[in-house]
Write a structure and sequence with these properties.
With 231 residues, the protein is of the alpha+beta class. It contains five helices and twelve strands. It folds into two domains: 96 residues, Distorted Sandwich (Protein Yojf, Chain: A), CATH 2.70.180; 109 residues, 3-Layer(aba) Sandwich (Trna Endonuclease, Chain: A, domain 1).
Length: 231
């Protein structure tokens, strides 16, 4: 990865046109061919960029641009379209290259698989007398996250999400329609469980007779400090 801090102006030419006037900016040149233009603000989003695949060509500016103080001109050409990112550099403040190596990717804490494992181990979170039948109960349209029995012995299908929205309720509805055709399982009721459940999803679930359970992930993994709470 190459990091260049420079006084520069930037023009995007192609399907749309955009211009960034002269200012000090961070130019990020990545090994995949992408080039990103950042300012000291605006959070993570670049002011402009060229996505890969692309090629970077550095050339001497034309005479008119030399008179305006341009030291070198970058042209970042998209390999798929005629779009170009043109960077006119007036002054280089910093220029460094770094070998980052292979990245293992983002490992998220608290993904649905973790919630599923914890809930299976603590199935009583859903209610007193609950017992686990199995995780990942396979059906013809996909696996049900958790299949359990409640205190009365009735079958319960549980759909787990980190953030519960209407799509998750629809998914559980399809599972319930299929599972209730199996005489060995029917009647099967549903529980929609998530760390956060959107109001629209909760309303739809209740309309379809599906219970909603909000999961406290920290408490389930034993890191919730009850004594430090204000309430």
């Amino acid at each position: 990865m190459r990091l260049v801090i420079a006084q520069c102006s930037v023009d995007y030419v192609g399907r749309l046109k955009a211009h960034l006037p002269l200012a000090t900016r961070l130019l990020v040149v990545k090994a995949d061919g992408s080039v990103l233009v950042h300012s000291d603000g605006g959070s993570y989003k670049p002011l402009n960029w060229m996505s890969p695949p692309a090629t970077l060509r550095v050339a001497s500016p034309a005479e008119a641009e030399l008179e305006e103080g341009v030291l070198e001109q970058w042209t970042v050409q998209s390999a798929k379209t005629d779009d170009r990112l043109i960077v006119n550099i007036h002054e280089v403040v910093h220029d460094s290259s770094h070998e980052l190596g292979l990245d293992p990717g983002l490992i998220k804490d608290g993904v649905e698989s973790d919630l599923q494992r914890l809930l299976a181990e603590q199935i009583e979170t859903l209610g007193e007398g609950f017992t686990l039948i199995r995780r990942e109960y396979f059906t013809a349209i996909g696996p049900v996250d958790i299949l359990a029995r409640d205190a009365s012995g009735a079958t319960v299908a549980v759909e787990l999400k980190r953030r519960g929205d209407i799509d998750g309720v629809e998914q559980l509805t399809r599972y319930l329609e299929l599972l209730n055709r199996d005489p060995l399982l029917a009647p099967v009721r549903g529980i929609f469980a998530a760390q956060q459940i959107k109001p629209q999803a909760r309303t739809l679930a209740q309309d379809r007779g599906i219970d909603c359970v909000t999961l406290d992930y920290d408490a389930m993994r034993g890191v919730d400090d009850v004594e430090s709470r204000l309430f």
